[in-house]
Every structure is written in structure tokens, then in C-alpha cells.
Specification:
This protein is of the alpha+beta class. Helix content is about 60%, strand content about 15%. The protein contains 10 helices and 10 strands. Helix 6 packs antiparallel against helix 7.
Length: about 350
């Protein structure tokens, strides 16, 4: 059996989904359809050739592009256990749990519900053996129920290293370029906020460079890459804080228009990077670290735009200094969360 992911550009509401389901209704080779309308993605589990699927999809007029296709195997005797995890309420705990199970052949799939503090695990071994992995993490995990998984399909091959590498290379190039652009603009505009934003881009470029190194490497090397990226980000955040302090003492005269224009360009660049990394955001720890930093960047860009508006309105450098301090705190927070995640796995 194959699992194929399609991009369907004109599929964005339930009416298109219904038409696609009708088109595949009765096609015995198609086992399952999974729709992601916001992303305009359609994942199809099928026995026939991907081109045969495309021959059914294209005449509907919604467009169709094959993103990737891979072989999958049905798994028998798989258990499904639901755990209550009281102290799991943010992505840092999720990352820690994913790291704990990385490389565990008995665990097939993890499904997180942070809002409900629940974790559903598909596994070959007993629920008690799974609990023995969760308990040392200190999140208070307990078994709610366990049962046989029906018609569970497990992907026998992970997303290819080539796909990870291509995405990381793209976002590395974007962030390296934006570091130079935003740094120069920050110096011209005498803006501490833009300088802090450029340091954030430099931190991300280092993160993606380390993540590129980690692709295809062992679990331990991936953990070290994530840890190193956290250290780099922490150092840069401290450096930005010292620069803010220096400008508070000696003063500055930021140019609001340059701040807003450059921050808007940086925001577009980071949203593009997030789109490129969206399919990897729940991957291994070095990729999850990359996603955290991109999220931080978007917050920083929006903050600089707001600060530029306030600088223009109040004719004061204070909003520029304040946003620089906030960016430093955001950068530092992301670094600390990554370092805590990597430390908890080894403890």
C-alpha cells in the first residue's frame, strides 16, 4: 500500500472535499482519504499507482500536485493506549516526550492533545512498558485506557533526509540573508529593535546550520545539535541585552519608517520559512527547535512594526528600546526551553 500527499490549490472548503470523496467513492484501490483544508493538502492511502490517483483528481478542476509518495505496511497486534499527563501543557513537554520515545521500535505513533493534557500512543509492547518510559520524565503520566488498534497503518519509512535537507537549506539561506539586510537597516536607522531582530535571524541561521548537520545523524548527535542551538541563542540574547543597556545610557534616534518597512520584509521572510518548515514542525528534536525559533521571529517582527508606529507617533526612542528588550527575552526563553528539553532527556 502507498501513502501519497497531494497539494490541491483550489480545495479550501467542505464542498470541494465532498466532491473529491464522491469522485473516489467506489474506487476499490483507494483505502482512505485524509483532508487538510487550511493547507489544501489531501493524503490518500491507495493500492494502485499515484498517476492513477491523479487521473481521477485532475478532472475535478481543483488542481493537483504530488508532493511525496511512500510505501506503507499494515501493522497487526498494535495496542492503542490513552494516557493522562497532568503536567504536559506546552510544546516543550511534547518535545521532551518525543525525544524519550525516539528510536523505540515498539512505539509506532504519538498523538498529543496539550489542551486536554492527554497522549495517545500506538505501540506493540504493553501499556505498562510504555508507562515506564513516561514516568521518569516527571509529568505525572497515568494510564486511562488501553485497547487493540483497529486497522492501524504505520509508516515503515520516515520522511526522507533529502526533504529535511531541502527545507533546512532554504530557511538557512533566508535567515542568513535577512540577518545582513536587517543588520544594515538597523545601523542606518539607529534602531535597537532592528539590531535585536537581526541577531534573532543570526541565531536562527546558526540553528538551521546545526540542524542541517544533524540530518541523518544519530539520536545523540541530534540532541547535541538542539542543545548547541539553544546555547548559541542564549549567548546572542545576552549580547543584545548589553547593546540595549548601552543605548539607554548613550541614547539613540531610531528612524520609524525604516523600522516598519524592514520589519515587514522580515515578517514575510519568516512566514515563508514557517511554511517551508510546516511539515517538519512535529519531527525530531533538532527540527522542533528550528520551528520554535521561527515562531519567535514572527513575534519579534510584529513587535518591531508596532514599535516603529509608536516611535513615529510619540517621537520617542523608548518603544524601540522596549521591543529590543522584549525580543531578547523571547530569544532567551526559546533557548532555555530547548536546553531544558535536552537536559531532561539525559537526566
Amino acid at each position: 500500500m502507498k501513502k501519497t500527499l497531494f497539494k490541491v490549490p483550489k480545495m479550501d472548503c467542505p464542498s470541494e472535499e465532498r466532491m473529491i470523496r464522491m469522485a473516489f467513492d467506489g474506487v476499490q484501490e483507494v483505502q482512505k482519504l485524509e483532508f487538510d483544508l487550511p493547507q489544501r493538502h489531501l493524503e490518500i492511502f491507495h493500492l494502485n499507482n499515484s498517476n492513477d490517483i491523479m487521473a481521477i483528481l485532475l478532472p475535478l478542476g481543483f488542481g493537483g500536485e504530488l508532493i511525496h509518495s511512500e510505501e506503507i505496511i499494515p501493522v497487526s497486534s498494535v495496542n492503542k493506549t490513552l494516557f493522562k499527563v497532568p503536567k504536559m501543557d506546552c510544546p516543550s513537554e511534547e518535545r521532551t516526550i518525543r525525544m524519550a520515545f525516539e528510536g523505540n521500535d515498539n512505539v509506532q505513533k504519538l498523538e498529543f492533545n496539550l489542551t486536554q493534557r492527554q497522549l495517545e500512543i500506538f505501540h506493540r509492547n504493553t501499556a505498562e512498558e510504555v508507562l515506564n518510559v513516561l514516568s521518569p520524565l516527571g509529568f505525572g503520566a497515568e494510564i486511562m485506557r488501553t485497547e487493540k488498534a483497529q486497522d492501524f497503518i504505520c509508516n515503515d519509512s520516515k520522511e526522507s533526509d533529502d526533504q529535511e535537507t531541502a527545507a533546512l537549506k532554504s530557511v538557512f539561506a533566508i535567515n542568513a540573508l535577512m540577518f545582513v539586510v536587517v543588520l544594515i537597516a538597523g545601523l542606518i536607522a539607529d534602531s535597537t529593535g532592528l539590531l535585536a531582530d537581526s541577531i534573532d535571524n543570526l541565531a536562527d541561521a546558526s540553528v538551521f546550520g546545526l540542524s542541517l548537520y544533524a540530518v541523518g545523524k544519530s539520536r545523540e548527535l541530534k540532541r547535541k545539535a538542539a542543545k548547541m542551538s539553544g546555547v548559541v541563542q542564549l549567548i546572542l540574547a545576552l549580547g543584545t541585552s548589553f547593546e540595549v543597556l548601552r543605548r539607554i545610557i548613550f541614547g539613540s534616534e531610531p528612524e520609524s519608517q525604516i523600522m516598519m518597512i524592514v520589519a515587514a520584509l522580515a515578517l514575510i521572510a519568516n512566514l515563508t520559512s514557517m511554511y517551508l518548515m510546516s511539515s517538519h514542525r512535529k519531527g525530531e528534536i533538532h527540527l522542533q527547535a528550528s520551528w520554535i525559533f521561527l515562531s519567535n521571529d514572527v513575534i519579534a517582527n510584529i513587535g518591531v512594526i508596532i514599535a516603529g508606529v509608536l516611535v513615529h507617533y510619540f517621537k520617542s526612542e523608548l518603544p524601540d528600546l522596549i521591543i529590543a528588550i522584549i525580543i531578547s527575552c523571547v530569544v532567551m526563553s526559546g533557548a532555555i526551553r530547548i536546553l531544558r528539553s535536552t537536559k531532561k532527556i539525559t537526566s
